[in-house]
Design goal:
The chain is of the alpha+beta class. It has one domain. Helix content is about 35%, strand content about 20%. It contains four helices and five strands, in the order βββαααββα. It has a three-stranded antiparallel sheet with strand order 3-5-4, with helices on one face. A two-stranded antiparallel ribbon has the order 1-2. Helix 1 crosses helix 3. The N and C termini lie far apart (about 30 Å).
Amino acid sequence: MSDYYTTVRAVRYPMLAAISPADMIKAYEMGSKEWLLKFPKGNYELLLSTLTSLFENEVVVTRAGNNFMYFDINNIAEGFEEDFPNDLFDPDDKTRSSFSLL
């Protein structure tokens, strides 16, 4: 592990992604088969790992232009500390309860 990168649930952070937390929730609700038909190059396991880490408060997210930066909550890079907390990850109660059943 370097000082800059850390791994949570087999995902390396920080991670720059075009997909927002809200889109991750929609993908989860869609299910892997439907999501992979829509995004054949997508990595549904990485998506679920990141979403799980968001639900478990292990990972936080901030906006970076048109993309999103996901950080291990214990390793937020300098220059981004002031971006937190934020409200980009805000699932409703129905989603929160359905996800907790996994």
